[in-house]
Write a structure and sequence with these properties.
The chain is an alpha+beta fold and about 675 residues long. It folds into 6 domains: about 5-65, Helix Hairpins; about 85-310, DNA ligase/mRNA capping enzyme (D-amino Acid Aminotransferase, Chain A, domain 1); about 315-400, OB fold (Dihydrolipoamide Acetyltransferase, E2P), CATH 2.40.50.140; about 430-500, 5' to 3' exonuclease, C-terminal subdomain (DNA polymerase, domain 1, Orthogonal Bundle); about 505-575, DNA polymerase, domain 1, CATH 1.10.150.20; about 595-664, BRCT domain (Rossmann fold). Helices cover about 40% and strands about 20% of the residues. It has 25 helices and 24 strands. Strands 12, 13, 14, 16, 17, 19 and 20 form a 7-stranded antiparallel beta sheet that branches. Strands 2-11-10-3-9 form a 5-stranded mixed beta sheet. Strands 5-4-7-8 form a 4-stranded antiparallel beta sheet. Strand 16 and strand 17 form a beta hairpin. The longest helix is centred in the N-terminal third of the chain and has 24 residues, at about 5-25. The chain is globular and about 90 Å long. The structure holds 2-(butylsulfanyl)adenosine (IVH). 2-(butylsulfanyl)adenosine (IVH) binds near residues 85, 116, 117, 121 and 172.
């Protein structure tokens, strides 16, 4: 165990390393390390902080995820009202703005032009350099307290360097384009309504009552204005931006200094051309008077300052015709309708397809094949249909209907209850195969160590496997010939594949990727039915009779076992020797913890939380997260939480890791 001093040094080192990578990832969009490497830095920091809790500080990257979900947001009255900006839509209006500024201030002025981030305004308060409050703009007078969610944003500095005792700044939170595209893909796959644009996605992610949801989203924050607390002489906006940077904020690098309105106009024209080059959305530019002493002289209108104006980019929409609607099958079998368009120029790019998201969206917008539609490059990446032009209909237009059978594999397409998405039910649909296999071999599932996504990709592309069961007939020679594989890794994989046959019913059930059946439900089902065959025979009523199994899971299980591909897959797995039964108490006398409910608290000396849980479950026990009268044992390690006190209060036996190991 390192000494406290050594640990402190290491912790600081890790934190600064992690912050550096945050910066490269979010601001520069140019990560220096892989996600796995990043995670391993985080894990190292977490483990040191666990050993030396006295080193935990609120600004540590580990503290980003806040505590329990909130009931509702607290309102915050802003100490400085937050104005919004007047708009200029063309060069003429920019020149009018400059004329007014010069008239009122009586001098010629210089400007700063900043990209206008299309995100969510945030107001951040720091006391003695510590981040203490984060709020939305709200109506400009009162906003919502989203401090906990902002803490979960990796890039937001939680502690500043050399800041005054109290500092209030204004900035914009946003979701980078790539993160937005990925999030929507995930939402599509889960049958959830995709976000219309990155701004909504950012706002939706920050206005979450559970900060853990925010923590799972990729967000950035750029700061551009000091509202309160400058204790140094700074005379211009240009200097304010560098000062903010010095404090440790992310500040847009692409801001420009312009000596006069001519340079401003040039700059704006250049940005119209290159507006899509940033990794986040901008919807215009903000032109700000540079000398700060003029701000008082220029003052405000009822709604906006006279020292700044928003230059809005010309809209990027165009009218074209929907030639056809085509259905794409995504990785989890979700069918996404896509409009095939007569090619049209939108903002300098030829657009020939637009996403229609799902059938519901098509119905709402009433898009028909043959319609003239307005398309726009939403979120700057995926073009979308905004609305149809019904006045241009000829009567020849055709209403679109989602196919009843998957266009890729011919399996039945189903709408599950409560979902907007339609899904292909085929187990062996090639479009889904890769994801299916990646899931099948993953840790909580069959746990085939060494078989990562890159390998699965090769196996599918080379047609070495056509369903998850095929991994059991891969030979060491076939594997050794693949890219980035040697004989040794091939051997290891063959061994890991072999081992996975003994993984047990619960993991197998989870591995099969039945919709809505997570590992918890899989364990319940395995305990209840004892074999895959028994589960396959179970009726809807039998399934919903189990307290943890609702109609959604039950229906999904039913559909899964009705598929012909499922029977084929199961037969193949059986032939390969995959174990399909749960070992039961009476048969083997092994399940010593059957029916016993355990609660874990504190840090155990040898087992991780996960390992302890697996051990208990493997021996038939259940693990619950809270102590109640139904709890049989509380396993306590060092620094136990309130669960320990509760167990004492209720007189529930408290045992050590050692005692648990002896029981099994
Ligand atoms: S300055 C007094 N600078 O655009 C207003 N605003 O109405 C000071 N925005 O919601 C705003 N990027 O939050 C400024 N670089 C930037 C900005 C920016 C985005 C937002 C702002 C406001 C809207 C303008």
């Amino acid at each position: 165990m390192p000494s406290l001093d050594e640990a402190r040094r290491k912790v600081e080192e890790l934190r600064s390393e992690i912050r550096k990578h945050d910066y490269h990832y979010y601001v520069l969009d140019n990560p220096l390390i892989t996600d796995q490497e990043y995670d391993s830095l985080m894990r190292e920091l977490e483990s040191l902080e666990r050993e030396f809790p006295e080193l935990i500080t609120p600004d540590s990257p580990t503290q980003r995820v806040g505590g329990a979900p909130l009931e509702q947001f607290r309102s915050v009255r802003h100490t400085t009202p937050l104005f919004s900006l007047a708009n200029a839509f063309d060069e003429g209006e920019l020149r009018d703005f400059d004329r007014r500024v010069r008239q009122l201030s009586g001098t010629k002025v210089d400007y700063v032009v900043e990209p206008k981030i299309d995100g969510l305004t945030v107001v951040l308060t720091y006391e003695n350099g510590e981040f203490v409050l984060g709020a939305t703009r709200g109506d400009g007078i009162t906003g919502e307290d989203i401090t906990e969610n902002l803490r979960a944003v990796r890039l937001l500095p939680k502690r500043l360097k050399g800041a005054p005792p109290r500092l209030v700044v204004r900035g914009e939170a946003f979701m980078p384009k790539k993160a937005f595209a990925l999030l929507n893909e995930e939402r599509d796959a889960k049958g959830e309504q995709p976000f219309a644009n990155p701004r909504n996605a950012a706002a939706g992610s920050l206005r979450q009552l559970d900060p853990r949801v925010t923590a799972g989203r990729t967000l950035g924050v750029y700061v551009y204005q000091i509202l309160e607390g400058i204790d140094r002489e700074i005379s211009s906006q240009w200097e304010a931006l560098s000062l903010l940077r010095e404090f440790g904020f992310s500040v847009q690098e692409q801001s420009s200094y312009c000596r006069d309105i001519e340079e401003v106009v040039d700059c704006c024209n250049q940005w119209i051309e290159k507006r899509h080059t940033l990794n986040y959305d901008i919807d215009g530019l903000v032109v700000k008077v540079n000398p700060l002493h003029l701000y008082d002289i220029l003052g405000y209108t009822a709604k906006s300052p006279r020292w700044a104006i928003a230059f809005k980019f010309p809209a990027e929409q165009a009218v074209t015709r929907v030639k056809d609607i085509f259905v794409r099958v995504g990785r989890t079998g979700v069918l996404t309708p896509t409009a095939i368009l007569e090619p049209v120029q939108v903002g300098g790019v030829t657009v020939s397809r637009a996403t229609l998201h799902n059938e519901e969206m098509i119905r709402q917008k009433d898009v028909r094949i043959g319609d003239y539609v307005v398309v726009q490059r939403a979120g700057d990446v995926i073009p979308e249909v905004v609305r149809v032009l019904p006045e241009r209909r000829t009567g020849e237009e055709k209403v679109f209907k989602m196919p009843d059978y998957c266009p890729v594999c011919g399996s039945e397409v189903l709408h599950l209850e409560g979902e907007v998405a339609a899904r292909c039910t085929g187990v062996a649909c090639p479009a889904q195969l890769k994801e299916l296999v990646i899931h099948f071999v993953s840790r909580e599932a069959m746990d085939v160590e060494g078989m990562g996504p890159a390998l699965v990709e090769q196996l599918v592309d080379k047609k070495l496997i056509s369903d998850p069961a095929d991994i059991y007939s891969l030979s060491r020679e076939e594997l050794a010939e693949l890219e980035r594989m040697g004989e040794k890794s091939a051997d290891n994989i063959v061994r890991a594949v072999e081992r996975s046959k003994e993984r047990g019913l619960a993991h197998l059930l989870y591995a099969l990727g039945i919709r809505h059946v997570g590992i918890k439900a899989a364990e319940t089902l395995a305990n209840k039915f004892g074999s895959l065959d028994a589960l396959a025979r179970a009726s809807f009523e039998e399934l919903t009779g189990i307290p943890e199994i609702g109609p959604k899971i039950a229906r999904s299980i039913e559909i899964f076992f009705q598929q012909e591909q499922t029977s084929r897959l199961i037969a193949k797995l059986k032939r390969a020797g995959v174990k399909m039964e749960q070992e039961r108490n009476e048969e083997k006398g092994e399940l010593v913890l059957a029916g016993k409910v355990f609660v874990l608290t504190g840090t155990l000396p040898n087992l991780s939380r996960k390992e302890a849980e697996e051990l208990i479950k493997k021996h038939g026990g259940k693990v619950s997260s809270s102590v109640s009268k139904k709890t049989d044992y509380v396993v306590a390690g060092s620094d136990p939480g309130q669960k320990y006190d509760k167990a004492k209060q209720l007189g529930i036996p408290i045992i050590s890791e050692d005692e648990l190991l002896q029981m099994v």
